[in-house]
Amino acid sequence: xxxxxxxxxxxxxxxxxxxxxxxxxxxxxxxxxxxxxxxxxxxxxxxxxxxxxxxxxxxxxxxxxxxxxxxxxxxxxxxxxxxxxxxxxxxxxxxxxxxxxxxxxxxxxxxxxxxxxxxxxxxxxxxxxxxxx
Length: 133
Fold this sequence. Notes:
Order of helices and strands: HHHHHH
Radius of gyration: 15 Å
Low-confidence stretches: none
Oligomer: single chain
Number of strands: 0
Strand content: under 5%
């Protein structure tokens, strides 16, 4: 299993893959607040190599299935399953390399926007609740 910060990161990042308007600043706030001690690089890797390959194809569909939010348990199960399968199967690992490359292309602008919001959040030092949990 994974640590709580990593699970929180996956669940928070899943909000970027719903078919709706996303408050990227709120996602950045939640990542900074709930995903300690993950670095920006850890979050970037989780975005491109763990969450985007699992949830990203949903956003490319003409009729996405998820409009508001993903089931948290489902996100953790699906991401964990992909990581485990990638570790156990050399063939699946090779397939993942191609998918990861595609995710870096398709979701580069999403990451850029999020990375800027994370940097802004870290520099502001917010301690408020920004409508959170």
